[in-house]
Amino acid sequence: MAGAARDTPAGEQEEYRLSMCSKLCYAIGGAPNQVAGSAASFFLQIYLLDIAHITPFHASLVLFIGKASGAVTDPVAGFFISKSRWTKIGRLMPWVLACTPFTIVSYFFMWYLPPFVSGRVAWYLTFHCLFQALTTLFQVPYSALTMFLSTDQKDRDSATAYRMTMEVLGTLIGASLQGQIVASAHVSPHCTVNPSLNTTDSWHDAPIIPDPSDSLSHQAKVYMIAAGVIAGVYLLGIVVLFLGVKERDDPYALNSDRAIPFCKGLALTMKHGPYVKLTASFLLISTAVQLEQGNFVLFCTHAAGLRNHFQYLVVTILVSAAVSVPFWQKFLQRFGKKCAACGISWMIPFAVMLVTIPNLILAYFVAFISGLSIAASLLLPWSMLPDVVDNFRLQNPHGKGHETIFYSSYVFFTKMSAGIGLGISAAGLEFTGYKPGICRQSDDVILTLKLLIGAVPAILILLGLFILLFYPITEESRKETKLALEELRRSHQSTDNLDSHKKDTSV
Description:
Largest sheet: 2 strands, parallel
Helix content: over 70%
Low-confidence stretches: 6-15, 193-215
Order of helices and strands: EHHHHHHHEEHHHHHHEHHHH
Oligomer: single chain
Strand order of the largest sheet: 1-2
Number of helices: 17
Strand content: under 5%
């Protein structure tokens, strides 16, 4: 069993390099969260609308309040984790292990269709909030663990690349499993196109669910099967993480250094220029990606006439994203992280083309390009955040425990922005008259879906990239920070050794 490395001798700690096996185990540990998150991102909205039969307004409440609960949990989790004491398995690992069983239970019941109708909104709101809060309790310590795997920037960047590759694969697995298992729930002979006419007017405007007593039970069953399979993935991931990863204590801090109080640390974080610019930029970009994910299945089903292809298009997006993460890792190493951010904008022209010219071949091409952009948007913030933490550490050398503050507040802002975006999109569908269960939506609903897939994400991405232009950490400044931190670590080790020697002589 892997333990926590705290009392490693100074010289041995300085020379420690992260093994490929440790990187892989760390990456696998984060995949289950992405598997579940991917399934929810792509399918929860259409599940609430077309399977659970709650109104778009109530669906928007479930999506927004759920995301908001996860966001509010972030600083709370950061506060308690920063107060945690070191244990035999580390300071962060106990949190990851403790919340996993409850996360599995809440995820399963989030996809369960209760037999009553009047209380369904409260049911889904409760379990979605629990799931989002518990995934936060997992994600904050897990992502902060990056800083305690190794002191070497290249090691951390490499571990982040492994993690992002595995998380994109997790996203692929989640969407693929969910898509293949539940595809039959969204295909109905009552929604067929007359081949002789091949127009949208030839759609039979009959409900997809003509017999709730029979078809609805089948639809609910396949969603529960998918939830059970993904719950099993959670167990596998947490076992691999626990057995294969060692958490190491902060090598830069003096033994006499005290943890920064949470409120003071949060105030310092919000005043740290590089962090503010990075967070503001990727708030907008992540909201754009969430809008794409949350509305893509609805767009394919109701606005693009691709009802029978949506699961394959989702898989295309995620396969493209998974295979392109190593490319982006090499790209950012050679050309810099800010330069790699330009790849996020590649999806914009092709998404606009798909909205204006719905076509099957074009849809697959757009899905491939979107995957490239999504991979860049996933890899870059988590690769840049450790640089921000190092920059802050250099300016505040005698404080420790601030890593969880950075990671929890970043996740808070991204979840809150995503919740607002998804809530507004669902409310927009309510306002324009979305009707669950019918084969053809109104022109206003179709126009809304096109805007949510094309124009709105494009504007958000461009604004985010504009803010990123003012991000001050360059490749040169990263190298300078690395050298300064190495010198700081050596001086701290010398100070600790001197203090130990004084104690020994006094005795």
